[in-house]
Amino acid sequence: MSTKVIIVGSQGRMGQALLRCLPNHAGLELAGAVDQGDDLNAVIRQGDVVIDFSAHAVTGPLTARCAQLGKAIVIGTTGHDAAELAEIRQHAATIPVVLASNYSTGVNTLFWLTRKCAEILGPDFDLEVVEMHHRLKKDAPSGTAKSLAEILAQVRGLQLDTAARHGREGIVGERTKAEIGVHSIRGGDVVGDHTVIFANVGERVELTHKASSRETFANGALRAAGWVVKQKPGLYDMQDVLGLK
Ligand code: NAD
């Protein structure tokens, strides 16, 4: 029997990508698509799982409703404050919840590979993260680049706040072992490129992920929807969905 999916934020960029991608996922069926002004209560009972790509203030009450009705939820929306995150965590005691800032299967694989690579290559390798995004992006470095640098810092036992070297200019001195370079490039319509460089004398390893459409996030969230309905109540992330823990 198919898993019935309700999409919240269906008119948005991600909502539209989810609607395009859903028919390619065997075992998933659309039970409802809701945007601002639509009546969620008219459709939510027909779903097994809700996928939320809307706005941060929507997620808490939506998760509460899912908990009341025993529906699983996949949360793609970002930007929650501490109180909103606490509310999500509270409801994860009642229903299975997946919460991830990046649903791309490739990026989550890159996270896993980055940790493994840092562990295997050891402290002699210099660590640098380079990201490129389109000219309209407002923040730098990207959240994904921060996550990659955080993984590297954890493996090295460094505090990212002090270890991160955001670009270099002037007489900065020789590179130290206690720094993680983080560099942001902006231009054109690049959806999101991330490279982690492990450089030693005589050799270099580079791990690269390139996103070229939002469908990568949509497909990851749909994969999470098929997975989460089979889980016990709890808070999960995309690494759990992919079995990377
Ligand atoms: P968007 O602004 O294009 O779409 C958001 C949609 O949510 C809009 O159509 C809006 O009308 C709708 N909405 C607002 N309030 C609502 C409500 N109460 N009920 C139902 N719908 C409501 O934004 P987007 O680019 O699609 O991104 C949506 C969210 O997903 C953002 O928080 C973004 O950061 C996040 N995002 C996450 C990932 C990931 O991999 N986790 C990837 C891309 C975007």
What does this molecule look like?
The chain has about 240 residues and is α/β, with parallel strands linked by helices. The chain folds into 2 domains: about 5-100 and about 215-240, NAD(P)-binding Rossmann-like Domain (Rossmann fold); about 105-210, 2-Layer Sandwich (Dihydrodipicolinate Reductase, domain 2), CATH 3.30.360. The chain is built from 8 helices and 11 strands. The chain has helices at about 15-20, 55-70, 80-90, 105-120, 145-155, 160-165, 215-230, 240; strands spanning about 5-10, 30-35, 50, 70-75, 95-100, 125-135, 165, 180-185, 190-200, 205-210, 235. Strands 2-1-3-4-5-11 form a 6-stranded parallel sheet, sandwiched between helices. The chain has a 5-stranded mixed sheet with strand order 7-8-6-9-10. Helix 2 links the parallel strand 3 and strand 4. Helix 1 packs across helix 7, helix 2 runs parallel beside helix 3 and helix 4 runs parallel beside helix 5. The radius of gyration is 20 Å and the shape is elongated. The structure holds nicotinamide-adenine-dinucleotide (NAD). Nicotinamide-adenine-dinucleotide binds near residues 35 and 217.
